[in-house]
Structure formats: C-alpha cells, structure tokens
Amino acid sequence: MTAPNHTFDGKAFARGLSTAPGVYRMFAADDGVLYVGKARALKNRVASYFNSTPKPARTMAMLAQVARMDVTVTRSEAEALLLENQLIKSLKPRYNVLLRDDKSYPYVLLTQEPWPRIGLHRGARSIPGRYFGPYPSVVAVRETLNLLHKLFKLRSCEDSVFRNRSRPCLQYQIGRCTAPCVGLVQAHEYAEAVRRVTLFLEGRSDELSDELTNAMEAASERLDFEEAARLRDQVAMIRKLQARQYVEGQAADMDVLACAMQGTRACVLLLAFRDGRNLGTRPFFPKTNGSDSPAEVLAAFVSQYYAEQPPPREIILDRDIEDADLLQEALGAAAGHRVQVKTSVRGDRAGYLDLASRNAAMTLATELGSQAAQRERAESLRDMLGLDELPQRIECFDISHTMGEATVASCVVFDAEGPVRGQYRRYNIAGVEPGDDYAAMHQALLRRFRRAVEEDGVMPDVLLIDGGAGQVAQARDVLTELGISGPLLVGVAKGEARRAGDETLLLPDGRELHPGAASPGLQLVQQVRDEAHRFAITGHRGRRQKARNSSRLEDIPGIGPRRRSALLRHFGGLGGLKNASADQIAHVEGISSELARRIYATLHGLQGPGIERRPD
C-alpha cells in the first residue's frame, strides 16, 4: 500500500492501515528512504508518529521530510523483524542506526573434499565446506587452529600444494599433520579425525572427551598402549582447556554486549564465548544517523548483527532493549535452538558484563581521539588545496604489476571518518601493452567514471592519482572526455629520494605543492595513497598467483604423466620446480633444453621472474 505523492497526510494514511504486523518505510521527496521500521500493529505504530505527543528533535526533523510511506504486511512479528533487517541492509535509510557492512569476520573453515583441509577463512563463503564462527578476532581463530592441529593433525595446506607433494612437509615432522598428501594415514582414520574436529567446533567437548576416554580404555584392553597414550594426551588437553576457560563450570555458549556513547558516536563491544572458551573481544562502531540513545543503538545492533551471524544460546546485554522477547523468538527460530536475551545476570556473567562495559568506553574514547586527528588532517588538506568545505569523499587510484604481468588498478575511498572499505574497487586491466602504466590508468579511470555518469552519479570531492604528470594527464583526459568537472584532481609524485614527506602534489592549474612531512594534510594524502597501494598490490598478487596456479604441467606440450612424475620427484613438488632455473630443469632425465625453457616460461607467467614494483 502506498500513499499518494502530494503533500503527505500521515493521519489519513494511518487510518487506512490494518492492525496486522508488518514493516513501514518513509520516503523523502527525492524518493530517498528516510526510515524503515517494524510494527506489531501497523495502524497504531504509524499513527503514533503523527499524533500530538511531543517527540525528539531528530524524529521531528525526519517527519518534516516525509513525502510518502509504503507498508508491507507480514504474517508475524518475527517475520516483520527479518524483513526490517533485510530492508535496512539493502536501502541504508538516512535515520536508521546502521551496522557498518563488514565482510571480514574470520571463520574456521573445514572443507568438503576427500581429504578435508582446516584453516582460517575471511570473505565470501563460497568454498564448499563447514564454516564455524564468526570469531571476534583472527587471533582467536589462530589459537583454535593451533589447538586443533596439535590434537587431530588435519592438513592446513592449500590444494595446489597438497596435490603435488612427493614427501611429507615440516608440519608432519613436528607432529601437526598426518601427511595424507603422501598416503601416511588411512582414509578412515583421517575421516574419524575430521568427525572429532567437528564435534569440538560444534561445542560438544564433553561428548568428545567421553568418546576419547572410551577409545583409550579399549586401546589399553587390547594392549595397544601407544594408541592409548595418544588418546590420553588428547583427553588431558581438552580437560585442561575446559578447566581453565569454562564459565561457572558450564560450557557457555554466549555473547556479552555493551554499548558506550558520547553524543551520537557509539561503540558496541562484543565479548564472545563458545564451548566455554573466551574468544576475546571485537569493537563495532555503528552509524547512528543522529541517534543518541544507547538502547536504540544496541537494539539495532543485536537485530542486524544476528540476522547475518548465527546467534549463541545466550546474549547478555548491558541494558534493556525494545522487543527483547521478539528478538528471542525470531533468533531462536532462525538458529534452530533456544536463544535467551538477558540483562540481569550475576556471578561470572556480571563480571564479564562489567569488563565489556569498561572496554567499550575505553575503545570509544580511543576512536574519538583518532577521529579528532583525522578531522585535523582533513581541515589541513582543505586549506592546502583551497577547498571551500571539508572533502567528504576522497578517491585514490594506483596501478600494480610485475614486469607488465597481471596488471591491476585499485580505487580506494575515504570519507570524513576514514576508509570506506565497502566501496573499494579493483580493475583487472586488459588489452593494453604490458607495462604501459598510462594506458592502464586511463582504462581504470574510464571504467570508474563512465559508470558514475551512466548509473550512480557518485563523484569524489578530491581525486588523487598516484603518479606524476603523465598519470595526471590521463586522468584529466578521462574527465574531459566524459564532461566531468566536479572532482579536484591532484597528482601525488614521489620526491627524488622517494622518502615519505618529500612528495610533490600536482594541481590542475600547473602549481606544485611541497607541504613537507609535518603537514597534517600531506599525512592524510599519504594515508590514502598507501592504502591504494596496499589494495592494488594485494589484488595483483592474487591475480598473478591464480594465473600461475592454473598452469598445470600437463598443459605444456611435451609433458605427459611420466615426465610430470619425474619433474615432481626430482624437485620435491611443484614449489621446488617453480624455484628451479631452466638449466636445472634440463638436468632431469627426459627433459630437453627447449622443453625446459618452455616449462620455465609457463610456470612464470610467460614473462620470466620479476620484482614486484609500482610505477612512479
């Protein structure tokens, strides 16, 4: 149901609604979404906005902009909650509290293949297998993996290494892997280790301990004392972990959340326990969009965070929030187990809640201090470049390649608060002469700004180009070609000694600025430029490695199974072969000098070995 587009009459619109549960959306005159909310009874909730009851200034400012409203009726309040979260994430309303989109949550990944691999995973969950987490930090994941490798000895190597091993690696030698790559463990034994790892990661340590104890006793009865001793050590390690980290003697599965606020800036701190193990803390900084209510921020965080991440059995909060019972119901239904949202706790849990509260306050204070420094740098940059206002969006482009191979351009975005990683972009450069940095920059900029002109219209206030006059000329040509005049174009050229602080800023009118290392404005430029470099070279390495890993020996003319086996056996695997020179490869029986050169060229991307570099 949609209200007409003339001057909005909220009372009349509310009268036409039903008392069913659902979700409502408020729109501004430009069709931008102002607010998304859920309601137990749509008619009552929407009407409450337009009655005579006094409302906060933020709410009044929002209502003054409402041009129309939409509603969607749902079957239940829980369904309304789920739909609200989906719409907030996709529409990003101006007045909702928003959990910043962060795809970097670390997980433990147990792959789904004949010989599963266990390791740390970040990013899209596209690899087949089971994902355990998310963990609050990479340190927590590595501690868990360290323990699992000691206990169950699953492989951690990538498939490209695993498939080409001819002898056990160091992980086998130090007792952290059973070397399935060379057949030193039976398939059923490895599968049993995988099953036990799964029990541990699912939080079923008591069940695992009982099982290992029974297996130990059985091994002892059949006089297999070596196996019994190994199982005994596993049980002892698990019991020791339980004794040290269990909360109140139970295998706690809970998150402790506390919210600290100063003005409209907020920090939500997460302290996570899984299977009784303290996994550490992780801070979040939601975008409050003007809200100064810790309860509102915390409620929005719980709703949005656990819509994306599996909830634990207990969620302990430092304050009461709206619709806590509804959240329990919705999260429990989605998780398939009971979820309790608590605010009144005692004992160890009260201590952890106090710890989370104090850490949230300290983390927010640190963040605000860094933001003050960020604003000082932005003000200095504004004055240095002669801008009328603080730059709200800065973009920087960089190019990375190795001797012309696998060229990648990066675009990073900073706003008034720092990097906006969700808007970073990489461009795989194709169709240009290898090593032609000017053509690569031209292509990347043309792709970026053509989309802005034809689709989203998003433009930076300041466009930084990492390079000298040649790269800046390419950027000027692209902007002129597309008829774009808004962004201030600035080239960032290195000094003679390439020392940080000696950079020269090239302006469109031909002026050159030398701010010096002490300039806060130049420090901001350096921060953005260095982030663009990091993002470009990471993408380049990934593209280059993918290209090299995809080159199989069998694809090289003249290499069959026998010669492949001889090469891998001679060099101890594909890694050793890649490190060999063409002359060394030619010493392998059955490999001619011409074939050795062909193998070398294929394994090194047809370019030969090079040193990673960035163009000036």
TrEMBL record:
Localization: Cytoplasm
InterPro entries per record: GIY-YIG_endonuc (IPR000305), GIY-YIG_endonuc_sf (IPR035901), GIY-YIG_UvrC_Cho (IPR047296), Hlx-hairpin-Hlx_DNA-bd_motif (IPR003583), RuvA_2-like (IPR010994), UVR_dom (IPR001943), UVR_dom_sf (IPR036876), UvrABC_protein_C (IPR050066)
SMART domains for this protein: GIYc, HhH1
Residues of the UvrC family homology region profile domain: 256-479
Presence of the UniProt keyword Transferase in the record: no
Domain of life: Bacteria
Location, primary (coarse class): cytoplasm
Keywords noted in UniProt: Cytoplasm, DNA damage, DNA excision, DNA repair, Excision nuclease, SOS response
Nucleotide-binding listed as a keyword: no
Annotated ranges, domain UVR: 206-241
Coiled coil: none
Signal peptide from the UniProt entry: none
Family named by the database record: Belongs to the UvrC family.
Function field: The UvrABC repair system catalyzes the recognition and processing of DNA lesions. UvrC both incises the 5' and 3' sides of the lesion. The N-terminal half is responsible for the 3' incision and the C-terminal half is responsible for the 5' incision.
Subunit record text: Interacts with UvrB in an incision complex.
Name recorded for this polypeptide: UvrABC system protein C
Gene designation: uvrC
